[in-house]
Design a protein that fits this description.
The chain is built from 18 helices and twelve strands. With 463 residues, it is α/β, with parallel strands linked by helices.
Length: 463
């Protein structure tokens, strides 16, 4: 008997994190419910860093209300059209369109529907998508405003060309895992002792791609970069029995690897104007970064292109996408030859359907996809997206790396995990959907302002 979407809940969750005093890592969280003999449920969220999370929750509620009374199976039949429907309210588009608060709220709602879809089929989200036919996958993708670069027919041909190898690629990634890199060793503000400890631990854990934050002080960045390089390039810290990776191997070509195959990336989080970015990163060339991430304003497409041209003689690439509003910004970044690395964000883009459009465009342009993660729930989300890219879209993971941060996974029923080779394990639980369901205890503890953690904080019971 058909079921209908009956109601939803939103939760404004602020999860305290002491690493960065400017951030209270937060989740604007939604759960959508149906009626029926076997009621369905879908969980979704978007990530913020504290203030404003309540505003996103209000926007989520406004969008989710559009789904009340609808049959989820009608929505599942064509998730591309479902995306269009959720984003189609003309009055709500006035406060976007498809950018800012309303867009990341749409991401939470769309992701909740994808979670419900996967749970209804008894599959992890990645498996639901890679098991689709090319025609079904195209129907699940949003094409509005990008057909000048990628038409439905071309996307269908691309997916059909990769169809024959899907089972083999799935078997490979199930066996070895998906390549990861780590950021947690490279935060600004850490002491040298802390950086050394975390970097050595990461090398020993099997990671060979490392990222550090830059932009506060050039002399300090150079010193920290040399320090990190001295550890990741030293074979004594490699896992037992490992000799590192061949720096001349095809998968490391153009990444400026050190003698053990270790790769360093740097991230500026948008601090510079274009001329500043060029001169500053030139001064960091001696630490041999693969790329500079977010060197300038995230929607300055031509600025990124200018930076990339200026840094090319130094062998340093450009990466961005964490704050790229939508598929149209990615379209322009690719058209302008502005990036070497495409960094999709599972919560900045408005759900899986929009992510699929960016994955397909990046594959067409031959640009490697290395998603942004960290935060709250982002690692849980993006492993699914990288698996979809590898198995069904681009067909490659040799040069890809997926960001990993080792925090806040304890709040999720189905947390991501890393194997001994520094790779993500593949999510396999048929009940986990999009892996974003949070423990009720965590919701009760961290809901703002009346969660038990925050009540105790106001009473001075937290140090």
């Amino acid at each position: 008997m058909p079921c209908k979407i009956t109601h939803f809940e939103t939760h404004d969750l602020l999860l305290h994190l002491a690493r960065n005093t400017d951030c209270d890592y937060s989740s604007a969280y939604v759960t959508i419910f149906t009626d029926g003999d076997k009621p369905l449920v879908g969980h979704g969220m978007t990530f913020t860093i504290g203030r404003g999370n309540d505003i996103v929750c209000q926007a989520i509620a406004t969008l989710a209300n559009r789904l009340i009374g609808m049959d989820p199976e009608d929505l599942f039949k064509n998730m591309g059209k479902t995306y269009d429907y959720i984003s189609a309210d003309s009055q709500l588009r006035w406060i976007g369109p498809e950018k800012g608060v309303i867009h990341i709220a749409a991401g939470a709602v769309n992701n909740a529907l994808w979670d419900m879809f996967a749970r209804a089929r008894g599959k992890p989200l990645w498996k639901l998508v890679v098991d689709m036919t090319p025609e079904e996958l195209v129907d699940a993708t949003v094409f509005r405003y990008i057909t000048d670069v990628l038409a439905r027919e071309e996307a269908l041909a691309m997916l059909k060309a990769k169809e024959a190898g899907k089972k083999e690629r799935e078997a490979i990634v199930l066996e070895i895992g998906y390549p990861a890199y780590i950021t947690s060793a490279g935060w600004l503000g850490y002491s040298d002792e802390k950086v050394a400890q975390l970097t050595k631990e990461a090398v020993t854990a099997g990671f060979n791609h490392f990222k550090m934050k830059v932009g506060a002080d050039l002399a300090s960045d150079l010193r920290r970069g040399r320090f990190v390089r001295s550890i990741i390039d030293d074979p004594q810290y490699l896992p037992k029995g490992s000799s590192g990776r061949d720096p001349n191997s095809p998968e490391l070509q153009g990444k400026n690897p050190g003698p053990t195959g270790a790769v360093l990336m740097i991230d500026a989080n948008q601090v510079w104007d274009v001329p500043q970015a060029i001169e500053y990163v030139k001064s960091l060339a001696e630490i041999k970064p693969w790329f500079i991430e977010e060197p300038t304003a995230p929607d300055d497409v031509l600025g990124h292109a200018a930076i990339r041209r200026a840094l090319r003689p130094y062998g340093i690439g450009v990466a961005t996408g964490e704050h790229a509003h939508n598929r149209m910004v990615f379209k322009q970044l690719l058209q302008a030859d502005a990036i070497d690395v495409c960094q999709i964000d599972s919560c900045r883009l408005a759900g899986v359907s929009e992510v699929l459009s960016v994955l397909l465009m990046a594959a067409k342009f031959g640009v490697v996809v290395c998603p942004h993660a960290g935060g709250v729930g982002l690692c849980e989300y993006v492993i699914h997206l990288s698996l979809i890219d590898y198995i069904a879209v681009s067909g490659t993971m040799e040069r890809n790396v997926l960001e990993f941060a080792d925090h806040l996974h304890e709040h999720f029923l189905y947390p991501c995990s890393i194997n001994s080779k520094g790779r993500y394990n593949v999510p396999l639980n048929p009940a986990e959907g999009y892996s974003i369901e949070m423990y009720k205890k965590s919701i009760a503890e961290y809901e703002w302002p009346n969660g038990s953690y925050w009540v105790k904080a106001r009473e001075g019971k937290h140090s």
